[in-house]
Amino acid sequence: MKIGIFHGKRNRQIYNIMAKTVCDGLKAINKQYVYYDTKDECNKYQGDCDLAITFTNAASSTHNIYQKQKQTGGLYLTLYIGCISNNKIVNFDNRYQMYNWWDNPKQKLEQKYAISPNSYIYCDLLQPDYKQHCYKQQTQLRIKNWDNLLKNKNNNINSEYILIPEQRRPEGITHTKNWLQWANNTISILHTHTNRPIVIRLHPNYPKQIPKLNHKNIIFTYKTPLHKDLKKAFACCTLSSKCDIESVIRGYHTFTFNTNSIVHDITNHNISLINNPQIFDRQKWLNSISYSHWTLKEIASGQYFTYFFNQLLPYYNSLKDN
Fold first, then answer.
1. C-alpha angle with apex 8: 202 to 40, nearest 5 degrees?
2. Under 8 Å between Cβ of 162 and 233
3. Can you give the residue ranges of every domain in the chain?
4. Which residues pair with 88 in a beta bridge?
5. pLDDT mean values, one per 10 residues, the chain (322 residues)
């Protein structure tokens, strides 16, 4: 198997760390690889690798690699910051401290923001359809300190509104939808089924700007911690947002339209069912995704790639055969 490591995006220190960690992990199990070290090399890639490994879901850096793997039927694996690290949900408010998420890879890491070898990395292998995340159904929780994540389930008592997180530019290479068009259409459907107010959570990573929606009486929040925006929500509806992960873990009804979302299999997709959402087995889901979260130390030692080649790859091939 020819393995390609594509390190074309370098605006964050964590990408450099993940790239080195993957190289160390493959060496640990005696796997050879080809290293594509610049964005130009990534953009010129011709699709001759059986497995392509990238470190970002930014389409600007990975679109060519993704398309070439899709055309040739090759494997596509992305490593990214974890959705959960230790016993905390990773979100906009804490990822800077947990993963040194600042745009300055040349700056020496400050000790208080150093990335721990025990930080969890999300290892996202796309299914043969090149849209959905590939993971085996598991009956055991691999990461023991995740035990209490689902303990406090919201029962939607005193719920007041529907929360919709804004996305200026939907993340991920599998996306083609325009968020504003999607939001206008979604709100129109919601208004035919519920009288609950609509709250738009403006994207906290951009200057405050009210989107031009075709609807009135919309409530907007800005730079409020997500758990506070969710506090009195009946449901959270997203096109492409990691808000759906926190919504699921905290036990809110969640509707998502991102096929590659890690919570896609345990969320609703038909907005017309807003008043009667399906309830899912969150523990079964958590057991399974614990096998897509591995620490930097586990990846560097070869432990993750041993699992990848011995268990996940045969499962992937069974999907492909079917």
1. 120
2. yes
3. 3-148+289-321, 161-281
4. 85
5. 93 90 98 94 95 88 93 96 90 86 62 80 94 91 92 73 87 72 95 96 91 93 94 92 92 90 93 93 95 97 98 94 78
C-alpha 180/C-alpha 178 separation (Å) is 6
Query: What is the SS3 assignment for 234?
Result: strand
Torsions phi, psi for 78 (to 5 deg): -115, 135
DSSP 8-state secondary structure symbol assigned to residue 10: -
Q: How much of the chain is helix, strand and coil, in % rounded to 5?
A: 35, 20, 45
Q: Are 138 and 291 in contact (CB under 8 A)?
A: yes
| Whole-prediction pTM | 0.91
User: Could you tell me if 152 and 252 are in contact, meaning their C-beta atoms sit under 8 angstroms apart?
Assistant: no
115-163 confidence digits (pLDDT tens):
889 999 999 999 999 988 998 999 999 999 899 999 877 666 668 999 9
